[in-house]
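Usage example:
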Amino acid sequence: MTHTDKELLDLFRNTENRNYAFNMLVRNYQQKLYWHIRRIVISHDDTDDVLQNTFIKVWNSLEGFREDSQLYTWLYRIATNEALSFLKQKRTRFFLPLVDVEHQLMESLEGDTYFSGDEIQHQLQKAILSLPEKQRIVFNMKYYEEMKYEEMSEITGTSVGALKASYHHAVKKIEDFMKRSVFQ
Amino acid sequence: MDDLLKISKDNPFRIPDGYFDEFPEKMRKRLESGNYRTYRWNLFPALKPYFVLGIATVVFALITYTAVKFLTVKDIKILTTEEIAEMFQQDPYDIDGYMVEELWAEIADSVIVTTEIGDTTGNTTNEIIEYLLDNEIDDYLLLAEL
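Running the assembly step on the lines above writes:
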């Protein structure tokens, strides 16, 4: 039985149906949120941790959700913030920012049993990882998830114009990277 | 954009079998267990870089201080004759006969000795020492004269 987001919210606010509503919410959004997070943190195990933390935060905050945005964009915002917090924690784990986290993520692609792309895909992922964090997220949302700029604006809190510019620059950088490494 | 379009959008990432089937149950169990505090306020990670920098600064200062202290040439105090004599009298270094002989040898080399035993010309240091020993001349008196 499928429910709309509004119905799930109403069910959740009823204490008797809370667990059922939350379970349905997880089933409806786990894949979309998983892949969104996975493209940011790369590793499956890290993604699993971040996804769990995301849904825990949803469980704690859903009752106070004011519905001033769509549930879908609200969930994405939480997942994005959790992924970025995870990367930030990874940076501060070291004494000094001598270790480039993005370089570590690139290296984690090498020999990763849960990465099955060919050489071109490998280089593409490295190109995407070379982008600044937020630009990387914008690129992934537009290129892979084919989101509308208005939805991305709700998720990131950035204007549509800035997002379009960011995506345009991201594409340019990736193409330059690919030309140097693959399309020569 | 043309080059990017040449690349397939197929997802290169994989997941363990059955992951999405099991995930809702995993979430349910975690929430039921009450183990869902995701944020532990921990100041240490944020302060860790400053803490380490502080320790490094202290260690560097200690190393620098120690190196400067040991490498600095100390002033050599030149003792007067009276101070030397006083030292012998106090005998803080447990001076033995051999040390005294060496001291006589140094003195003999630097002082022209005129004695009643004759012309100093041709007298060797060893002869002077032997003379002093044979005549059991007191070390401290000798130094006092000097």
